[in-house]
Specification:
The protein is 51% helix and 0% strand. It is an all-alpha fold and 153 residues long. It has one domain. Helix 1 packs antiparallel against helix 2, helix 2 runs antiparallel to helix 4 and helix 2 packs parallel to helix 5. The longest helix is centred in the middle third of the chain and has 22 residues. The chain is globular and about 50 Å long. Keywords: Membrane, Transmembrane, Transmembrane helix.
């Protein structure tokens, strides 16, 4: 029995991405980042798009694939302590709507960045590398896998 625990979820971290308005807030946050970068006078439009893509993907990599554990006290015997947020998302069930949304959104941002940079080779390489660093850890085959023991503990 957990005295003083205000939530009924075993791990509330698993449901936060499905909460009401989360996807809209996420999309508005990405738009706001892009508008802020566009308002900087010495950034051209291609640089602003590439920076939007790279900053978004870096932030999502850290938030979803690097940070482990949960900020909540959970009665799961410490199982969530060893999992990243992506692995905790929807209790590890693959191909849910929130997992699809957070997989497709960097791809859409990549297409937009590539289009607005007119497929310039430098921007294209940066955007592609950034996209791959976010998409590869999302593969179902890599669920719980720690390559070279990185982020094992």
């Amino acid at each position: 029995m957990n005295v003083g625990v205000a939530h009924s979820e075993v791990n509330p971290n698993t449901r936060v991405m499905n909460s009401r308005g989360m996807w809209l807030t996420y999309a508005l946050g990405v738009c706001m980042l892009h508008i802020v970068l566009l308002s900087i006078p010495f950034f051209s439009v291609p640089v602003a798009w590439t920076l939007t893509n790279v900053i978004h993907n870096l932030g999502m990599y850290v938030f979803l694939h690097a940070v482990k554990g949960t900020p909540f006290e959970t009665p799961d015997q410490g199982k969530a302590r060893l999992l990243t947020h992506w692995e905790q998302l929807d209790y590890g069930v693959q191909f849910t709507s929130s997992r699809k949304f957070f997989t497709i959104s960097p791809i859409i941002l990549y297409f937009l960045a590539s289009f607005y940079t007119k497929y310039d080779p430098t921007h294209f390489i940066l955007n592609t590398a950034s996209l791959l660093t976010v998409l590869i850890p999302k593969l179902p085959q890599l669920h719980g896998v720690r390559i070279f023991g990185i982020n094992k503990y």
